[in-house]
């Protein structure tokens, strides 16, 4: 009798032990040892990120769905996301309205040439600031930050006059020449990125190359620049995308003829229905749904190339930005 | 005499040897700075002190002194109000953007399957956020959030916040999606910043029994302080040159008005710049102080 009770007790205790061990395991599985290991934490991360990702994707999806609707679907409020019938008419209209091939060529010429030039010039300037002896280095760094701070609106008129004196207006050189001289779009940010990057490189590498008799130029182009490949890629992508999307500067400097896509998107209303000239500019909220679809198609055509470039390069982009290690 | 000259020559030779290559590397930037930044800045300041009229063959300047600046506050009944409203909104938006970017980048920095896909998705705003495309989308209403009307938040906000500030809060709330879109670059900078923290630090505090919560406050946050300051700076500049910014629109409108013209518009732009400059100076001072006190502890 006594042994039976004792046996039961021991059994229960062992069961409890096993249970607690198991629950601990479950707890560890759910809560995790690290913040990110547990199932619960993972679930929360997934949910939060998915919500934000949805918000990011939503305009893109809206754009694509509106673009593919025909007129009856556009006017029908019951058709929200998925059009009843897919039409390519808007796309072809936008293609013509933007004069896509020509505008694409203009935009690509500006964005490609300027961003490639910017990579080299900003790398050179950043390298000089990081490693070479330059008088008044602190003052120069301050001035670089100043150029980042000054809004383009403040100096646009003098710039316009300077560009017109130099005869650069209405050609791609209006962007290429400043880029050659280190004053491209957000060039200051890129100089700072390169400066931080070159700071982080081990100095012994340069010493070794110098001992072997390499000149500074050889050293820079053969060793430092290839080492900074990831930083170059980051700068190139940022620069490319910002040049591609820029609106204010071309609206000032590229008034006629040679216009990039972003300006043509703005003019699209007037191109589509010339009778409304002047009306639509003041009341963007009351845009009629038919032109809206065409505009969405045009917007899609504009962002398609950078998305493709981004998709192609983003593998290196992600690791690249992590390796730059921008440390103040 | 001869000796002094040779000394000078040597000193010159020495300094040219020392600074030569550095200057050569800096040369393009320096030329660019002089031509495309220094001259326009000086010119624009000069114009802001004049009444500028466009005449055939150039500009006609009439000296006004500080008149343009005085007019901006005393005569113009749009500019001061817009400036102050926009500043209120910015002051609210900057912390929201930076904190949001910090949270998202913290989440993206965790290890979980599919992280790669999510990261790719979170770089989307970098592509769109600068463009005309985005403002086009927002004028079409793609960026509206339904919950504001659905749950009738406005009276609630009015009740808790009260008065004049409530409209600012509502304005910011109605732009939540825009805020999310403008935090793409910040998220990227934060993720880059987290990579500079060595994982052994986290391991060490975990062995010492710190919870993830502690390790965030004691390691992650202090280590990312420079990036927070960089992001605050970037956010201010980004909002400053925001395409839907009412102040810049006002400046642009004034530029092409006959009775006000370039001079007045430059004066407005300089006032605007001065406000932002003060804001940036205060922010940088606060951060440098907190970083210094941290550096002292180490």
UniProtKB/TrEMBL annotation, chain A:
Its main location: membrane. It comes from the Bacteria. Keywords: Cell membrane, Membrane, Transmembrane, Transmembrane helix, Transport. The chain crosses the membrane at residues 39-57, 108-130, 142-163, 175-198, 219-244, 296-313. PROSITE patterns: ABC_TM1. GO terms for cellular component: plasma membrane. Pfam families: BPD_transp_1. It is found in: Cell membrane. It is a multi-pass membrane protein. CDD domains: TM_PBP2. Residues 104-313 form the ABC transmembrane type-1 domain. SUPFAM superfamilies: MetI-like (SSF161098). GO terms for biological process: transmembrane transport. Belongs to the binding-protein-dependent transport system permease family. This is Carbohydrate ABC transporter permease.
TrEMBL record, chain B:
It comes from Cohnella zeiphila. This is Sugar ABC transporter permease. It is a multi-pass membrane protein. Signal peptide: none annotated. GO terms for biological process: transmembrane transport. InterPro entries: MetI-like, MetI-like_sf, UgpAE/MalFG_permease. Residues 83-283 form the ABC transmembrane type-1 domain. GO terms for cellular component: plasma membrane. It comes from the Bacteria. It is found in: Cell membrane. Keywords: Cell membrane, Membrane, Transmembrane, Transmembrane helix, Transport. Its main location: membrane. The chain crosses the membrane at residues 21-43, 90-109, 116-134, 179-198, 219-242, 262-288. The keyword Transport applies.
């Amino acid at each position: 009798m006594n042994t039976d009770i004792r046996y039961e007790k021991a059994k229960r205790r062992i069961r409890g032990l096993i249970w607690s061990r198991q629950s601990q395991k479950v707890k560890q599985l759910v809560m995790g040892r690290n913040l990110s290991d547990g199932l619960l934490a993972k679930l929360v991360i997934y949910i939060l990120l998915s919500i934000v990702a949805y918000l990011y994707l939503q305009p893109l999806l809206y754009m694509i769905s509106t673009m593919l609707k025909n007129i009856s679907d556009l006017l029908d409020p019951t058709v929200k996301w998925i059009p009843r019938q897919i039409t390519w008419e808007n796309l072809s209209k936008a293609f013509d309205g933007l004069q896509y091939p020509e505008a694409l060529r203009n935009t690509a010429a500006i964005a490609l040439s300027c961003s490639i030039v910017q990579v080299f010039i900003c790398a050179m300037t950043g390298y000089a600031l990081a490693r070479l002896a330059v008088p008044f280095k602190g003052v120069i760094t301050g001035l670089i930050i100043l150029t980042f701070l000054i809004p383009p609106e403040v100096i646009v008129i003098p710039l316009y006059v300077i560009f017109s004196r130099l005869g650069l207006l209405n050609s791609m050189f209006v962007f290429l020449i400043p880029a050659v001289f280190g004053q491209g779009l957000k060039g200051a940010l890129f100089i700072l990125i390169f400066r931080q990057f070159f700071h982080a490189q081990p100095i012994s590498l340069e010493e070794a190359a110098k001992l072997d008799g390499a000149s500074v130029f050889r050293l820079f182009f053969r060793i430092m620049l290839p080492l900074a490949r990831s930083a170059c890629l980051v700068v190139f992508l940022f620069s490319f995308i910002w040049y591609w999307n820029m609106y204010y500067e071309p609206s000032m400097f590229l008034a006629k003829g040679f216009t990039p896509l972003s300006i043509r998107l703005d003019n699209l209303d007037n191109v589509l229905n010339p009778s409304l000239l002047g009306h639509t500019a003041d009341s963007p909220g009351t845009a009629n749904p038919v032109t809206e679809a065409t505009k969405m198609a045009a917007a899609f055509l504009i962002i398609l190339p950078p998305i493709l470039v981004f998709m192609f390069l983003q593998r290196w982009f992600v690791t690249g930005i992590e390796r730059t290690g921008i440390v103040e | 005499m001869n000796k002094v000259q040779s000394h000078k020559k040597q000193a010159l030779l020495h300094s040219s040897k020392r600074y030569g290559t550095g200057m050569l590397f800096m040369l393009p930037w320096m030329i660019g700075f002089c031509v495309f930044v220094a001259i326009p800045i000086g010119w624009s300041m000069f114009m802001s002190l004049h009444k500028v009229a466009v005449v055939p063959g150039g500009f006609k300047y009439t000296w006004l002194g500080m008149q343009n600046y005085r007019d901006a506050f005393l005569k113009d009944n749009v500019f001061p109000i817009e400036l102050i409203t926009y500043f209120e909104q910015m002051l609210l938006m900057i912390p929201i953007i930076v904190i949001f970017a910090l949270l998202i980048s913290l989440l993206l920095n965790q290890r979980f399957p599919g992280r790669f896909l999510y990261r790719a998705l979170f770089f989307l705003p970098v592509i769109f956020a600068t463009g005309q495309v985005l403002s086009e989308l927002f004028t079409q209403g793609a960026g509206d959030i339904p919950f504001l009307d659905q749950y009738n938040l406005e009276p609630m906000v009015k009740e808790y916040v009260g008065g004049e500030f409530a409209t600012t809060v509502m304005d910011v709330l109605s732009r939540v999606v825009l805020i999310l879109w403008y935090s793409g670059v910040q998220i990227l900078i934060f993720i880059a910043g987290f990579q500079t923290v060595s994982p052994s630090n986290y391991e060490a505090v975990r062995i010492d029994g710190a919870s993830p919560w502690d390790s965030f406050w004691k390691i992650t946050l202090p280590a990312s302080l420079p990036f927070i300051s960089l992001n605050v700076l970037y956010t201010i500049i980004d909002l400053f040159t925001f395409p839907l910014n009412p102040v810049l629109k006002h400046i642009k409108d004034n530029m092409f008005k006959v009775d006000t013209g370039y001079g007045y518009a430059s004066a407005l732009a300089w006032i605007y710049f001065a406000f932002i400059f003060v804001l940036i100076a205060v922010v940088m001072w606060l951060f440098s102080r907190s970083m210094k006190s941290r550096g002292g502890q180490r």
